[in-house]
Amino acid sequence: MRLASLPRIRLAHLPTPLEEAPFLSAALGGPRIFIKRDDCTGLALGGNKTRKLEYLIADAQSKGASVVITCGSDRSNHCRQTAAAARVAGMKCVLVLNSTTAEPAIQGNLLLDRMLGAQIRFVGSEAERDPMMEQVASEYREQGGEPYIIANGGSDPIGTAGYVAAIFELMEQLDDLGLEPSHLYTTSSLSGGTHAGLAIGAAIAGATFHVQGIAIEGSEDEVRAVVLPLANATAHYLESDAVLTPHDIRIDANYVGPGYAMNSDASLDAMNTVARTQAILLDPVYTAKTMAGLIGHIKAGQLGPADIVVFLHSGGSPALFSEGAALLAALEARGI
Ligand SMILES: *Cc1c(COP(=O)(O)O)cnc(C)c1O
Questions:
Q1: Separation of 194 CA from ligand 1 center, angstroms?
Q2: Rg from Cα positions in the chain
Q3: I need a labelling partner for 34 at 20 to 30 A (CA). Which of 115, 156, 185, 279 fits?
């Protein structure tokens, strides 16, 4: 396995803390819960994309790139962290953002993209992103620049290697604490790099815990159709013999709620509970639904007080400030 010899630049504050959440466990009558704080990776408000970018930006540098181009929605955490990573590496950054309005409000991640000086090209739909990235790349090539395109979410084998490395980091922390958890809970998405990296990383490292994905969009089959091939492509890229089968990719898609980035009662309850027990702030798009899944599994008796689980907090806090008043009203309407 050639993880240690891959080009990598330091962008994140590592290792991220692994913190026990005793008041949360008590409130749920559940297992011991440890939260892996990847919301604290440090780069321009942090989040999971920074681990991927340590490998992606290093790869861009090794290819002589002068400009990094990536895409996402106008609320993308990935785009904000890419804009920041490009700055640290002394490169330009162009973000291709799809937006439903011609002039989206300057708030949340979009505010931070602008502060970081990223150039922004808006497109009207997700389908227009890849052609626009190609167009921007050829514009730079014509001017003698060297563009490097990063896929949506940084979820290719190079970026996914960041979450293989995260498994080794986590296992060292668990070892130091003498902990043997049964499950690692993570968000599972239609970009899928985090779940894929954790799942193949766990196989490579011989972890004894199960990686349990909670889907925040899509169906179980749709998400698995992204995560499984990406996990195996990452093993291939790392020159590891590990191979996962469909059965190894655990996904529960019962917590998507009304849809991507739309609150559910369970996600609002999860945000309230974690904020009021541990003062840890979940984000509405990803980690609130993932925590709703963990809480749901505890309520269903799948995890009991004798168990130990790890929950990956993958970041996303800028979304809290995108529509603050509406979010607060929704949280308060659920009471606690
Ligand atoms: C992007 C993102 C995810 C999903 O990660 P993928 O690797 O794209 O599946 C989860 N949580 C947060 C906060 C994110 O920004």
A1: 7
A2: 19
A3: 156
**243: number of CA atoms within 13 Å, CB side?**
2
Contact 153 CB / ligand 1 (< 6 Å): yes
Residue 323 confidence (pLDDT): 87
- Sorted by sequence, the CB contacts under 8 Å of residue 325 that are 6+ apart come out as none
Percent of the chain with pLDDT over 90: 97
25, 76, 267, 322: which one is catalytic?
A: 76
Cβ of residue 316 lying under 6 Å from some atom of ligand 1: yes
CA distance 226 to 223: 5
Instruction: Give the C-alpha separation, 248 to 98, whole Å.
Output: 33
Task: Report the separation in Å between the CA atom of 40 and the middle of ligand 1, taken as the mean of its atom positions.
Answer: 14
Position of tokens 């400009």? 67
All structural domains of the chain, each given as residue ranges with its CATH number in brackets, are: 3-47+156-333 (3.40.50.1100), 49-154 (3.40.50.1100)
Residues 300-310 pLDDT 10s = 999 989 999 99
Residue 76 annotated in active site: yes
**Residue 322 in contact with ligand 1 by CB distance below 6 A:** no
197 lines ligand 1 (CB under 6 A): no
Q: How far is the CA of 141 from the centre of ligand 1 (A)?
A: 30
pLDDT digits (tens, 9 = 90+) for 203-222: 999 999 999 999 999 999 99
- Give start and end residues of each alpha helix (H) in 47-156: 49-62, 77-88, 108-115, 129-142
